[in-house]
Structure formats: C-alpha cells, structure tokens
Amino acid sequence: MTTITHRDLWYALVLSAVFVGVLIFLWGCYTLVIEPWQRRRKVSQRLSETSEAYVRRIQILKSRFEEKAPLTIVVSRFLLGKDRLAKFEKMLMQADIYYNPAIILQIILALILGGFFLGAFFLRSVLLGLVFAFFFGITPFLYFMKRKKQKTMAVERQMPDAMELLARSLRAGHTLPSAVELLGEELEHPLGTEFRIANEEQRFGIPIQDSLMSMIKRIDSQDLRYFVTAVLIQQESGGNLAEVLENISHVIRGRLNMKAKIRALTAEGRMSAVGLTVLPVVAFLLLIIFRYSYQHVMLTHPLGQKLTFAAIVLLVIGALFMRQIINNVEV
Question: Taking the C-alpha atoms of 230, 236, 240 and 243 in order, what is their torsion angle to the nearest 10 degrees?
Fold first, then answer.
C-alpha cells in the first residue's frame, strides 16, 4: 500500500497551478490578440467586398447617364436589339452581377464555341458538339437564375428589419430620402447596397419614387413591391407611412415563416429531384472513366450518339418538370 506524502501533494498542486496558468495565458492571448484580430479582419473584408460591389454598381449606374456608350454595348444592341439587351441586363442585376452585359455575352459565346469545338473536333461528332455547345451555353443562365434566387431570398430575409428600421426613422422625424440613406448605411448587402444605389440616384436628381421603381427592376421580390407600392400611394394620397410599413413588416414575417415550413415539407421532393437528375450523369461519366470500352459505343457509333442526345434531352425535360412541380407546391 502506497502512502501519499506532503511532497507528492505539493507536486500535484504545482502541476495543477502550471496547467491552470497555461490555460489562462492561452485564453488571454486569444481574447486580447487573436479574437480582436479576427474581428478586424472580418470587418475589413466585409467593407472591402461591400465597397467593391458598390463601386461596380455605381459604375453601371453612371454609364446609363452617359451619352456615349461603349463599343461592345453598341454592337450588342445592334445584334440583339435594345429591348433584349435591356432584359439581359435586368436579369444580371437581379442576379447581383453588375458587369458589362456585352462582356458577359462574349463569355457565353466563347463557352458555346468551346463546347462545339470540344465535341466536333476532339470527339469527332457534330451532334456531341451541339450537345456540349447547348450545355455550355445554358450553364451561365442556370447560374444567373441561382444567383437571382439567392439574392431574392436574402432581400426577403432583410425586409422585415428594414421596414421596422424605416418606420422608426420616420417616427423619429426623418424624411423619406434621409431614411433611405440611413437604411443604406445600416443594412448589410444586398438590400443595404440597393438602398445606397437608390440614394445615389437621388443625388443625380432622380425623384425618390423613380429610384424606388428602379430598385424593383434590380430585385425580383414581391415583398419589395409591396413596400414601393405603399410609398407611392402615400406620396400621392398621404397617410401614416410608418404604420403601413410596420404592417408590411408583420406580413412579410408571416410569409417567411410559412415559406420555411413549406420548404421543410418539400425537402424530400427536392432531394429526390436532385438525385434523379444527377445520378444518371454521374453513372455515365464513371462508365466512361472506368469502362470506356463498354461505353464508347454511345459516343462513337451514330445510333449511340443519337440515343445519348435523346437521353440528355429527356433528362433535361424531366428535371424541368420536377422543378416546376416543386415550385408550384412551394408557391
């Protein structure tokens, strides 16, 4: 039987004190040095991203007021028409992509030509070249639609807080233009950036009603349309705009809660749709990589190429049908 001496107790106490001291030292270093550094880095990164995005948006805004348009814009207007180019630019803005639409069109054209050359010259099949050209050409538009949906959802999540902040600003005595400027300073991207653009348009001399209408074109959100409609009606007929904005905030919160419940109920259907769309493509690619001798007939034989093309078309049609069904359920 071993006995514990006073020396062993002191030794254990010293080790415990050293261990606790090291923990306190590390905690102090993290609290006083690392955590403030991480916080400053996140703030500076957010400010730099916001400022870069703001500068790009303001450059697009200023280009609308310039008399001379770039050569790429002139050529695109001649080839596509002014209305189609305006619709394309509207889609880019709703997708939170503030770049020259002519440059985006050039990139899409390069992708289409690259896909066609990949199938026609490397795989020696004009049909596969058309398939790759279609796939490479439609991929940017699918990306734009995804970005558009993400921006709309982000704006709708910010709308209740924005309406409450705007209502409090109006009750505090701010005018509507100054309240819009305050929203641009206080809110984060993307809604805060859009309000800053609206404030910049007012500095160009555009009325607040027209700047808010321009915001509707940049954001595909029904909730934002409710807000703009309320402001336009109040400007024409008068009334308590702060109370109307508070009611709109309550309605938007209720709609967001309902949408969250519906998305939870349709999660299984959305995952099934993704699986049914992705698994055939993954299986086809794996067979090409590991069993090319088994799959090369579908790429080289004329009948196999036609069947591959038909399979891709049917897969795309099925994905669109499943997407439409899920969207109808969510609406």
Answer: 0
Chain centroid to CA 7:
66
Q: CB-based contacts of 166: which residues, under 8 Å, 6+ apart? A: 179, 180, 183, 242, 245
**What tokens does 235 get?**
């400007």
Residue 102 in contact with residue 80, Cβ under 8 Å?
no
Question: Which DSSP state fits 69?
Answer: P
Buried b (16+ CB within 10 A) or exposed e, 35-49: eeeeeeeeeeeeeee
Q: Is the dihedral of CA 27, 29, 34, 39 positive or negative?
A: positive
Give Cα 267 distance to the centre of its chain: 20
Separation of alpha carbons 148 and 236, rounded Å: 32
The number of residues making up the chain comes to 331
- For residue range 211-265, what is the model confidence (pLDDT) as tens digits? 888 888 889 888 899 889 888 888 888 778 888 889 989 988 888 888 888 888 8
Q: Is the pTM of this model over 0.70?
A: no
Least Cα distance to 314 among 131, 88, 54 occurs for 131
C-alpha–C-alpha distance, residues 173 and 293, integer Å: 76
Q: What are the DSSP calls for 101-133, one per residue?
A: HHHHHHHHHHHHHHHHHIIIIIS--HHHHHHHH
Report helix, strand or coil for 299: helix
**Residues 6+ positions from 183 with CB-CB distance below 8 Å:** 162, 165, 166, 169, 191, 192, 195
Owner of token pair 């078309």? 313
d(Cα 30, Cα 42) in Å, to the nearest integer?
16
Contact 168, 186 (CB under 8 A): no
